[in-house]
Write a structure and sequence with these properties.
This protein is mainly α and 1071 residues long. It contains 54 helices and 2 strands. 38% of the residues are buried.
């Protein structure tokens, strides 16, 4: 029984084992013949390709490759199919290209011994490295070259290709190689060329390496070393030319490019280029040859490389022309089309530039979607860039001036382009491209605050912004008058793009506006060398350099001759020279203005006016010409304002605004002058009062017209508010504050600032500070907000906070003289007077006609700097405002101080020495020159005093100022005489006043002549107003100084009378 069971068991088990074996065999057969059968996927893929389903075929072929990754035929199938796929989205296009590059690498690994396959991979990688300008791209190529070396047979052509690839890739990164690495690379190239003398890539690498060395050594000032390297370079180019086969177009292209770069090298020092050193004939020939050969190669990369050299050689237009010649036969080359778009959008041709830019952009936009390739992967970005450029072109076209119909058309086009751009950028409003586009649109609509915020956001998102971004952001800051911020932005731009001339021009202009003439001169000199055909940069360089050197630079021949004729009063000769200058300069503004000045100096107002109007016909709207025309044409102040506004302000809606602003400003000046004239008993008082009455008569009606027209802007609203505040008219100020609130879209900070001023005026200082702080916390970082807060913090004695706020305001807007003066005074109070002085010097250099800034600068020069400069500033104030007798008195005092080397002048009245030149003058000669200068200064001082007293002979205060200066210089009798002369004349004319005797008494008191002082004081008391008792009030301090406290108290008690004021009570308590 047991044995039967055993046999059954064996049978059953055996049966099961056989079944298992058969199943295992079946599984193996299925795995081998079906699951791992790649050919069935290939057949299925072929069927899909026949049906035109390329993407599905890629997936099917891909399965075959995943099963047999080393079968070259399968990889080629995927590559072929993928090359026919057109992606539906930009992201898919990029992913397809990434897969394609993986396949190329896989293909190369599958055929490691095939040099041709390696060349295909290397060429694709080089296209990427060129497009993205990445150093790591060339590192990757160098790595691939090393991998190729590892598998190629020594001495084979494949090994030479590998070695050539490694050396060529390394040479592309020569700027980041150390000196030792460059030397090693040069030796390796020389050794390789002995083995492969026909390798144009190795020759090109060696030549570019040595070219860069020459420029680098010149930039470092190592001229002898540069000359030796130049000889070696020339030999390399000659050997390269001899080795190049005539039929090898790529080799001929390399030779032509080297020849062109060699011509440019003659003008290159480091990164700078002096075009005046270029041999024009050689350059023309080299450019033509390089362009012809590049086009003949049939390679877009060769064309683009030569185009970039043509930009250096002849400007953007030349490079763009070559690219357009290539694109005429290769319209689908998006890489070249994108570069062409960047070039033509920067040519700056106002007539053809817009149409040319549109054509370049449309060429890109008209291309259908490309199948998988490097160009397809960038097509979406290139299309987006084309839309951005079209958008910019439309905005610029509007800015340059368009009639209403054209503007409406362009506005609609901008809206449509923005919508297309948003679609191209995957409807992402927060992407950098969209932010930049919106910033430009806001800028075109004059929403400068909105544009500024957009650019601020853009720069936080883009670590390496393009040059255009720096340019547009700089223009926004300039339009907002934030020149400090504009300078910071454009400096970053020029640092990142040193060869971008647009940024260099912006930086030069801003530096000039800020009075940074040394920096501006260097920039204009570089521009003059880079653009020799544009003569204005050379003229600007000379002018700004002269200003940077304090006017010591030799004047141009035309100016020097004119100045000499004018000094000698030879007006016929001056007219002749001025007319010749106008003719030779084709009627330049400077020359035509010189003609006007000649006639003005000669006294022929009629002739000057005729010439002025001729100049205005050529240069309409020029403010200097318009101002002089008004001054010559009429004496009436209102008529002068109207004439200027008619010339300068083209917008009729703004003319009322500007008229009111000018009338208010003139009224303020006249009110100040009248105070001066009244104190000095000037005979000009009646005329000034007549002018003031004339302005007060017309101003109310002008203000009504502004309100009626609704043309009020931020500036006029602020002026009206401050005018109301100065009169203490709070209801009127609140009305203007409400008007400011309505201007929030164009001037979002105006209401905040005016509200703070009103609260501060009302004594609600804490509330004023709170309003401003809340605005700052909400993002209002504008300079005026910081400046207003600084003013209030100063008033409450918070000097550290005021200093920080003034610095913030100044850094953002140093061109605002309120900021410059406020920051200077704050620095002075904090013990940083010399820093403040340097800042004021820049402000004065840029704004030579601002009286308040000149006054502040004169004060700082006298203490921390040069007395000669302080004298110059005071003299300038005198030229601008001859009625300012306080300034004349300060100038008189300065001229009596010991002279410094700045007062040593040449025959033309210019400073003879700067600090370095003065240090070379022997001490004895220095003493003699300074003594002569002091004598000259004192003579000028006395001339000023005589002229001032002639105008107002009874100005006892001015005489008192002279008396004080005389006492300081040990000439007390002369001081006594100055005062006595005024009193004697006043007594004779029966015009003597208590103030005259009081001034005399104070001077004698200071001299120690108590008896004489008491006699003068007694006369003053006899003439004082018994109600005001102004003399007694002054004598309180005299008696206090003498120690006669009881008498001082008696006098003060009498002065206070029955209604004492708080200051008098406090003084009484002190006594």
């Amino acid at each position: 029984m047991a044995s039967k069971l055993n046999r059954k068991f064996i049978f059953v088990v055996g049966g099961f084992s056989l079944a298992a074996i058969l199943l295992l065999v079946a599984v193996i057969l299925v795995n081998q013949l079906w699951l791992k059968n790649a050919d069935r996927h290939i057949r299925a893929g072929d069927e899909l390709m026949a049906q035109g389903k390329s993407r599905e075929a890629v997936a099917m072929y891909g399965r075959a490759v995943s099963k047999k990754p080393d079968v070259v035929r399968y990889i080629e199938k995927v590559e072929e199919a993928l090359g026919k796929v057109t992606a539906d989205t930009p992201a898919q296009s990029v992913e397809d290209y990434r897969i394609l590059m993986q396949l190329k690498r896989q293909h190369t690994r599958a055929q490691p011994g095939d040099p041709e396959q390696w060349k295909i991979l290397i060429a694709a990688l080089e296209d990427e490295a060129e497009l993205y300008s990445r150093g790591d791209g060339w590192i990757s190529i160098e790595t691939v070259g090393k991998e190729m070396k590892d598998v190629m047979a020594p001495g084979s052509d494949g090994m030479k290709t590998a070695e050539e690839t490694v050396l060529f890739a390394r040479a592309q990164r020569e700027q980041v190689l150390t000196s030792g690495e460059r030397t090693d690379l040069e030796k390796q190239l020389e050794a390789f060329l002995k083995v492969a003398p026909k390798s144009w890539r190795a020759w090109s690498a060696l030549v570019s390496l040595r070219t860069a060395d020459v420029a680098r050594l010149r930039g470092a000032g190592q001229t002898q070393a540069a000359s030796r390297r130049l000889e070696l370079l020339d030999k390399s180019i000659a050997d390269m030319r001899a080795a190049a086969e005539p039929n090898d177009l790529l080799a001929q292209d390399a030779v032509a490019s080297a020849d062109l770069e060699r011509v440019l090298l003659d003008a290159r020092t480091g990164n700078r280029m002096d075009r005046t050193k270029i041999d024009t004939a050689k350059l023309d020939a080299a450019c033509v040859k390089a362009a012809e050969v590049a086009l003949a190669t049939g390679k877009g990369s060769a064309v683009r490389a030569v185009a970039s050299r043509l930009v250096d050689a002849k400007g953007i237009d030349a490079g763009a022309k070559l690219l357009e010649d290539w694109l005429a036969n290769h319209p689908t080359d998006l890489i070249t089309a994108g570069l062409d778009l960047e070039y033509v959008s920067r040519t700056g041709d106002p007539e053809k530039g817009f149409d040319r830019t549109q054509a370049a952009a449309r060429r890109i936009l008209d291309q259908p979607r490309l199948p998988t390739s490097l160009m397809a992967s960038i097509q979406s970005d290139t299309r987006a860039r084309a839309l951005q450029v079209l958008l910019e072109a439309a905005i610029v076209q509007i800015a340059r001036g368009a009639d209403p119909a054209q503007k409406a058309k362009l506005d609609k086009e901008i809206v449509d382009l923005r919508a297309s751009l948003l679609e191209a950028l995957q409807n992402d409003e927060t992407g950098p491209g969209m932010i930049a586009a919106d910033a430009k649109i806001l800028q075109s609509r004059m929403d400068l605050n909105g544009a500024a915020k957009k650019w601020e956001l853009y720069f936080t998102k883009v670590p390496q912004p393009p040059a255009d971004a720096f340019l547009w952001a700089t223009m926004v800051s300039r339009a907002q008058n934030d020149l400090g911020l504009a300078m910071q932005t454009v400096t970053k731009g020029t640092d990142a793009y040193p060869s971008d001339l647009r940024l260099a021009i912006q930086r030069a202009e801003i530096a000039t506006q800020l009075g940074r003439f040394t920096e501006a001169a260097s920039l204009y000199e570089a521009l003059a060398k880079a653009l020799p055909e544009q003569e204005q940069y050379a003229r600007m360089a000379q002018d700004v350099r002269s200003r940077a050197d304090g006017g010591r630079t030799e004047a141009a021949p035309e100016i020097a001759g004119l100045e000499a004729a004018m000094r000698s009063k030879d007006f016929p000769r001056a007219r002749e020279l001025a007319a010749a200058w106008v003719k030779s300069s084709n009627g330049s503004l400077q020359a035509m203005y010189a003609q006007v000045l000649v006639e003005q100096e000669s006294g022929d107002k009629a002739a000057a006016l005729v010439l002025l109007r001729a100049a205005l016909d050529k240069y309409p709207g020029n403010p200097d010409l318009a101002r002089n025309e008004a001054l010559l044409a009429t004496e009436d102040p209102v008529e002068r304002i109207d004439m200027m506004i008619a010339r300068v302000v083209s917008d009729p809606a703004q003319r009322n605004n500007e008229r009111v602003r000018a009338l208010r400003a003139l009224r303020t000046d006249l009110e100040r002058q009248i105070g001066e004239l009244r104190r000095s008993n000037s005979p000009d008082l009646a005329r000034s009062e007549e002018f003031l009455k004339r302005i007060n008569d017309v101003l109310p009606e002008a203000e009504k017209q502004v309100v009626a027209s609704g043309a009020g802007d931020a500036s006029s609203t602020e002026l009206a508010f401050m005018d109301a505040l100065s009169r203490g008219d709070i209801p009127a100020a609140e009305l203007h504050l409400a008007a400011a609130a309505k201007l929030s879209s164009s001037s979002p900070i105006l209401e905040v600032i005016l509200r703070a001023r009103l609260l501060d005026y009302q004594g609600r200082t804490a509330e004023a500070i709170s309003v401003l702080e809340k605005a700052r916390q909400a993002g209002s970082n504008q300079a005026p907000v910081a400046a207003q807060l600084a003013v209030i913090q100063e008033r409450v004695g918070n000097e550290p906070a005021a200093l920080a706020l003034w610095k913030e305001a100044y850094d953002r807007r140093p061109n605002d003289l309120v900021n410059a003066r406020g920051y200077a005074r704050s620095l002075g109070r904090s013990g940083q007077g010399r820093t403040a002085l340097e800042m004021l010097r820049s402000a004065i250099a840029a704004n030579q006609n601002d009286l308040e800034t000149l006054t502040t600068a004169a004060q700082y020069e006298a203490v921390y700097g040069s007395r000669a400069k302080a004298i110059e500033h005071r003299q300038r104030i005198l030229q601008l405002d001859s009625t300012n007798r306080e300034n004349i008195g300060d100038l008189y005092a300065l001229l009596y101080m010991p002279a410094d080397f700045g007062s040593v002048r040449d025959a033309q009245g210019r400073p003879r020495y700067d600090a370095r030149g003065w240090s070379t003058v022997p001490p004895d000669e220095q003493r003699r020159l300074l003594e002569d200068a002091s004598v000259m200064n004192i003579a000028i001082a006395e001339q000023l005093y005589d002229a001032a007293m002639k105008v107002a002979p009874l100005d006892v205060r001015f005489a008192g100022r002279k008396a004080s200066v005389m006492r300081e210089n040990g000439k007390r009798p002369q001081g006594t005489k100055a005062l006595q002369d005024v009193i004697t004349r006043a007594e004779t004319e029966n015009k003597v006043t208590a103030l005259m005797y009081l001034e005399q008494g104070a001077y004698l008191e200071g001299n120690g002549d108590i008896a004489g002082a008491d006699a003068a004081f007694a006369k003053a008391v006899a003439l004082q107003d018994p109600k005001k008792r102004e003399v007694d009030a002054a004598l309180v301090e005299v008696e206090s100084r003498r120690g006669n406290t009881k008498r001082a108290i008696e006098l003060l008690t009498a002065v206070m009378g029955d209604s004492p004021q708080l200051p008098a009570l406090l003084r009484l308590a002190d006594l």
